[in-house]
Specification:
Shape: globular
CATH architecture: Orthogonal Bundle
Number of domains: 1
Number of helices: 18
Strand order of the largest sheet: 1-2
Largest sheet: 2 strands, antiparallel
Strand content: under 5%
Length: about 450
């Protein structure tokens, strides 16, 4: 018989709020920045099809497992894993899974905040007309000037972290819930505005065809689709687990996970429909890589009619997406301090926020005064900056391992009766989930992990 637990942090008002919060965690720079350019680099429509299949086979099963662990434990990821391991009469050593998620979220936020600062800067640069009529070399020079100035990067990084701390410090209902119920509809609205504008460029159908017409994809593209399907849903970093701990027993985890994955995917596709027509209308390269957002699109905004307004809306959208994700990244660590150290949420938020800000200095300096200071790990990476190292360790090692062991704990360690208590609202879906999370999903995550660390090459 499972112990009846109650979260000391409160719970979501309803399922819709939870879906908005979890979608806000999932929807971030990865959807609006990364998805369009990796689609452009890997063949368009076929890549999208493989990606959607991976969402169904990898993303949703692990999301269901992570929400389930959070709701059953009703605490921060660390204390949840302690409680569930005890409940299932398993080794207390499983607490390391909770710790890894909390640390991964903290490390990701430390550099995520810096990148979000770039987007904040570009809102004002675009609004001030800095990109009007500028050449490709000019846009590149503007970007280089920004990242090579540690004081400016530090100022934007600081502002973004303060914004994040302010929301989390107010608690689940008065802070996170209010923020996501305002920001997420606004985020969707801004995205729709840009898509509507893209329809007026005369190249909208080219964007549709690029996204949805089957093309060629190789093994590397398949692995990229698998990896992005896993990472885009914020899995393995404690965020979904801690948000799940605030979910009422009355709400269906199956329905919530499907809605979150659907909303996350819709945002990614809408971002593609917004970006590619603008790219094609201005004769730019859709496979421009990571520079698509900060070095390619500003050229378009600077040369098209109404580009200043569209650019401001676009980068504001990017900031909001980053903000909703950042809130979820800091919450697991804050929840742990409140539970274990008796701190108020304000004090815990400031403490974690300042520590995160401090570690983020390494990323700020990676683009300027520390750009020649590099790290190497034999057989893994060589001559990586501080930022590159954190990005590699979190995205390629900590998150895949976190997702893998969430699946293993949910499907192999927990008793079947325990998982049935949480997920068996739909018996057929439960059985499909159990097969996927026991066999298919872990194998897929292992392949993604081995490819990410260079153990296999396709």
């Amino acid at each position: 018989m499972a112990e009846q637990r109650t979260s000391i942090h409160g719970q979501w008002t309803n399922r819709t709020v939870f879906i908005l919060a979890a979608t806000g965690s999932a929807v971030g720079l990865g959807n609006i920045w990364k998805f369009p350019y990796i689609t452009g680099e890997n063949g368009g429509g076929t890549f999208v099809l493989v990606y959607l299949l991976c969402i169904a086979l990898i993303g949703i099963p692990i999301m269901m497992a992570e929400i389930m662990l959070g709701r059953r434990g009703k605490q921060s990821p660390i204390n949840t894993m302690i409680a569930l391991a005890k409940e299932e009469r398993r080794s207390p050593g499983w607490v390391w899974l909770g710790w890894m998620g909390v640390v991964a979220g903290f490390l990701i936020l430390s550099y995520y905040s810096v990148i979000a600062g770039w987007a904040m800067s570009y809102v004002f640069r675009t609004g001030g007309g800095m990109f009007l009529g500028v050449t490709a070399d000019g846009v590149n020079s503007i970007f280089t000037d920004l990242v090579s100035d540690p004081e400016r990067l530090l100022a934007w990084h600081t502002l973004f972290m303060v914004m994040t701390m302010m929301v989390v410090s107010r608690g689940v209902k008065n802070g996170i819930e209010r923020a996501v119920t305002f920001l997420m509809p606004l985020l969707f609205g801004l995205l729709i505005v840009i898509v509507i504008y893209a329809m007026t460029t005369g190249y909208f159908m080219e964007g549709v065809q690029f996204l949805f017409t089957p093309g060629s994809i190789d093994g590397k593209g398949v692995l990229i689709a698998m990896g992005h399907a896993f990472f885009t849903l914020s899995l393995g970093m404690g965020a979904i687990m801690v948000y799940g701990s605030y979910l009422s027993k009355d709400h269906s985890i199956v329905q919530a996970a499907i809605w979150i994955a659907l909303a996350d995917t819709v945002v990614a596709l809408l971002a593609g429909l917004a970006i590619f027509p603008i790219v094609f209308a201005n004769g730019l390269e859709p496979g421009a890589g990571p520079g698509l957002i900060f070095q390619t699109l500003p050229i378009a905004f600077g040369h098209m009619q109404g580009g200043t307004l569209v650019g401001v809306v676009f980068f504001t959208l990017l900031v909001f997406a980053a903000w909703t994700s950042a809130i979820s990244l800091i919450e697991p660590a804050v929840a742990y301090l409140v539970e274990n150290k008796g701190l108020t949420r304000i004090y815990a938020s400031v403490l974690i926020g300042v520590f995160t800000w401090f570690v983020g200095l390494g990323t700020v300096f990676s683009f300027n005064i520390w750009k020649d200071k590099t790290f190497s790990i034999p057989y893994m990476f060589d001559n990586f900056t501080f930022f590159d190292t954190l990005d590699y360790l979190t995205a390629n090692i900590m998150l895949p391992l976190g997702g893998l062991f969430i699946a293993i704990f949910a499907a192999w360690v927990m008793r079947q009766q325990s998982t049935r208590d949480e997920l068996a609202t739909y018996p057929f879906i439960y059985m499909v989930w159990r097969v996927l999370v026991r066999f298919i999903t872990p194998l897929a995550v292992i392949v993604v992990f081995l490819n990410a660390i260079g153990a296999i090459k396709i």
